[in-house]
Amino acid sequence: MKELFIKDKQSSIIMSLGVKSPQNILDICKKTEIVYAYTHGILKELENAELVYSEKSGRERYYRLTDKGKEVYQNLSKFMENMDKLEYGQANISLEEQKLLEYKQKIEDLKAQLQGERMKGTHSSQKLDALLDQLTQIEAQL
Q1: How far is residue 57's CA from residue 92's CA, in Å, rounded to a whole number?
Q2: 78: which DSSP letter?
């Protein structure tokens, strides 16, 4: 069963059914962009793994997640959310912490720029020193 979730298409179908249920096979094909025949085979796999069940209504067959499938959907959603966080460098820090890091970086950049200006001697040294002191104080408050 582990190898089932390594496969992208199976995961896509579970995610689609987790977001909206029930769906017929054509709806699933459109949302996942998987061809009909392949979707049909995957749905059979998922039914055999007891993650999906189907009900016939008239000429259509509608698919839903089982309780086990819903649990897999929730875990898969969390996994994908965590992968997104890792991809964007947000693994173990909050949005506030990210903002603080960004501000600290901006302060460091400004300090370096001001120190460069002071070295060139193009501005009043006292004025640049005062600005550097202000930036240092702001940084200490973060």
Answers
A1: 46
A2: H
Same domain for 27 and 81: yes
Indicate whether 106 and 68 sit together in one domain.
Answer: no
CA distance 75 to 69: 10
Residues 94-103, mean pLDDT to the nearest whole number: 71
Please give the Cα distance from 54 to 46 (Å, whole number).
10
| pLDDT tens readout for residues 52-64 | 999 998 999 999 9
> 66: exposed, middle or buried (C-beta count within 10 Å: 0-12, 13-18, 19+)?
middle
| CA distance linking residue 32 with residue 6, whole number of Å | 16
Taking the model in full, what pTM does it have? Answer: 0.56
Cα(58)–Cα(66) distance, integer angstroms:
21
* Sequence-ordered alpha helix ranges (H) in the chain: 8-19, 25-32, 36-48, 67-87, 95-120, 125-141
Quote the domain boundaries for residue 60. Answer: 2-87
Amino acid at site 64: R
Give the residues across from 81 on adjacent strands.
none
